[in-house]
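Design review, sub-item: ligand-bound model
Attendees: FS, YL, KQ
YL presented the inputs for the fe (ii) ion complex:
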Amino acid sequence: MDRRQFLFASLAAAASPLAMRGAWAADTYADAFHQATARDRWLRAYGGIDHDVAAPSLRIEGRIPAGLRGTLYRNGPALFERSGIRYHHLFDGDGMVQAFRFTENGVSHEGRFVQTPKFLAEQAQQRFLQSGFGTALPGLPFATGGGLDRANVANTNVVVHARRLMALWEGGSAFELDPVTLATRGPVTWRPDLKGMPFSAHPKIEPDGTMWNVGAIPDSLAIYRIAPDGTLAQAEVLKVPGLVMNHDFAVSRDHLVFVLPDTRLDLDKLRAGRAFLEALAFPPDAPMKLLVVDKADLRQQRTFELPPGYLFHFGNAWNDGAGTLRFDYVHHESAGVLMDGLPGLMRGDAASMPPRSAVSMQVAVDLASGRVRTAAMKDVVEFPRVDPRVVGQRNRHLWLSTGMGKGLGTLMMNAVLRYDVESGKRDAFRYEPEALVEEHVFVADRASTREGAGWLVGCAYDVAYGRTSLNVFDALRLSAGPIARAWLPYGLPPGFHGNFEAA
Ligand SMILES: [Fe+2]
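KQ shared the predicted structure:
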């Protein structure tokens, strides 16, 4: 039995009655969370919602630019509780895909839960039937021999490629949706032998339309290359000993770039019925591994070292022509947000959330000598984005969400930021003091080919008002403030990622 089979067998064993620990009644997350919302009212943003929403015409302040026509798709966890039981980790929430449609008549909004098998079965019975990544429910498996898709909540990103709309999750299949109605069509199988193999949540689409993606399972990394017409051009499964999971990667002209924190998985904890998250450990002083894979021959791989830390996201990567690979990622001091902050968020324990933890790291790797240089920016940030016209190529601009002010960190961001990475200049806008800012997405103005010509669009939850706004900025003049805001008649939990599809 290899390690992967052993892992799946262990996950199945974790579902046995012998592994039952505690009882449903002992679960304190829901009560603790609801009590905390009286004290820290911003937590109400994460109360969750249990039904689809629609608003045909949003109230708009300012003016939507005439060139901004199309749909902003967003995804994120939105349902957190069933029958008084609350998920123990933000990553476990069931995914709601949203569509903000920009037309001559204004802006509309729709949000629909992705109809995964897990969601459908649990909604029908109004109770949890399946443990999640960070939530071990007594006697309920995370996954068994049927694969991780049984736990798939399709909650992390949504992408349009070759006219296919797909909701994405790190550990399982993409779910295809109808781009007009957001109805779920079902899981995507790229090739029969890849059925159930993860197709993770951060694909990269190059300017020619080629989409790269990856999927990690223990000791193995699947790499997909999807042609601009949507057909599978290449898929290989690489052996990467010690790999447990992988959230994001970057592409340059020549390379695929991965940063792998030293991750330990304790199979005994899984056997004892603990959640997958609870079986993870990250040695704090271990360097991270930088894995550089040659796009032209995926067997050509090189490894380098980066400082100890943790990461979720990359901005971009490019080859400078002089043998140097350059990229940026958001460097966390530790895995504290994953391991402590997001479980703390779900039980309303604000003290468990690291106030400052992540900065943009600019990296240069001399591929001939192996020398690696890193330069950390100063702001607390997450959710880096670049102009899609320069993915894999030299980029000048990098957009991020940030926390400005005392005590604000990666779980409570209230501002958006642009770095001019060539000049080092920064351009920022700070929302209301009690705003919770999501990832903002760059949308190109097709009237121009200049990098950065376009708009930055994204949502913010207004804590005092209890509603969510969609905001549009001139992407090169964030400090001037939004040129338009569209208000939803309701508030929605801050989500993770999304993309814009031009009309
Ligand atoms: Fe992500």
